[in-house]
Amino acid sequence: MKTTAVASLFANAPAALGAGSHGNLPTALEQEIRAIYRRSPLYGERFPLHPAALQWSCYRELPILTKQEILNRGHTAFFADYTIIERGLQEKKYEYEHTSGSTAQPMTVVMEEGWWNAQMRRAYLAHPQLAPYASRPYRKAVLAPIGCSSNLCPYEDHPFPHRYFDGTVYLNLSSDPFVFAEAEWDRIVLELQALQPEVLEGEPVYLSMLARAVQKRRVVVPSVRTIILTYGKASRQHSRRIAEAFPAVQVDLYGSTEAGYIFVGDAFGDNLRVIDDNAFVELVPWRAQVPDIFQINVTTRDREAMPLLRYFTGDIVQRTPTGYRILGRERDLYFNAAGQIISSSDIDAALPEVFACWHWSLVQVSDLRWDFQYVADVSAPRGMAEAIASALGAGVRVNLFRRKFIQPAASGKFSLLKPLVR
């Protein structure tokens, strides 16, 4: 192997990563890598490790793990003897979830019992607004996408008491809130009033539509102190609509079923930080001509079942003076003719202050034509199409379409920006 003293770049706090010497990896990172090799035969089959101290050149030779490789190999490839896992599933020592996310096929994720709650607690401790909930009882309501990572939601038509566990109720009983019958919204709003949750967590579009239902019924839920935006990328439009119905502090919690929670920060504060106790997050420069923008590779920490090593999540982040901003999925970013990266944040900034909608999606239909679809109570103001077109680049034309609803992907998640597949 080649020897070099050049270290890879990480988003973690320096103290969490530690310092290496003579070109070697920091002790914490090397220990985690070797633990992952011991726990899962998958990695040794892909790339054997030598017993000597690992150097940065060795680290960069470790193959990147992708969702497609996990799907191709199957989740059983992570385990030497899957019959032990099957027995553990029966004995509740392990549990499994399915996630579709950015892939067409569902991915099976096996986790040791208690892992999800433990890494969620560490995520809470990493943010001052959430930290108090890590050490005391509280009530929480969750409105998740149809592919959420809990076996409790949203498919099973259980009555309210049977969806209430350890202070948390899952509100979903239907696959798509845009087509919820009014009676279903009546039920959800009634459950919120009955529960009086301190925390409201959900996919931003879903919470925006919930805010609409609450306002329509002239209901207030003054118990809500914290909003957790997760499962998907939020627009400032969602944030504002949610705040109108639930005037509470909004926190952005980013992660995935397979990797756990990775970043946490204030919603739209550009101060996301890595949850150091959950993961090491490697920053790989993306598109050399654009500084401070990276793809991320995640290495999970202290995970027994299905640990991930240099796992490419498909997400792109931007480094800011105060932390990080999630720009979105790589496939959801647009490069215009001038070489500029356009994300949903740029479209947010182009929308007039007087414009208010419950949801929007900007879809490219040809090289220079885009359709801006939005769900709103009133039509868009004059000049908005031109403002969006200007943000996208020279020569672009944008058509506006007011919709009753916008259909999510099969996973139940939404893409705000949908460029043509290249």
Can you offer a commentary on this structure?
This protein is α/β, with parallel strands linked by helices and 422 residues long. Among the domains are: 114-277, Rossmann fold (3-Layer(aba) Sandwich); 333-418, GMP Synthetase, Chain A, domain 3 (2-Layer Sandwich). The chain is 26% helix and 25% strand. The chain contains 12 helices and 21 strands. The protein has helices spanning 14-17, 27-39, 41-46, 56-61, 67-73, 82-90, 115-125, 182-195, 204-216, 236-245, 344-350, 384-392, and strands spanning 9-10, 94-99, 107-112, 140-143, 164-165, 168-170, 199-202, 226-229, 249-256, 260-266, 273-274, 279-285, 293-300, 311-320, 323-329, 334-335, 341-342, 359-366, 369-375, 397-402, 417-418. The strands form 5 sheets. Strands 5-6-4-7-8-9-10-11 form an 8-stranded mixed sheet. Strands 1-12-13-14-15 form a 5-stranded antiparallel sheet. The chain has a 4-stranded mixed sheet with strand order 20-19-18-21. Helix 12 (384-392) links the parallel strand 19 (369-375) and strand 20 (397-402). Helix 9 packs parallel to helix 10. The chain starts with 8 loop residues before the first strand and ends with a strand. 41% of the residues are buried. Residues 1-5 and 149-155 have low confidence and may be disordered.
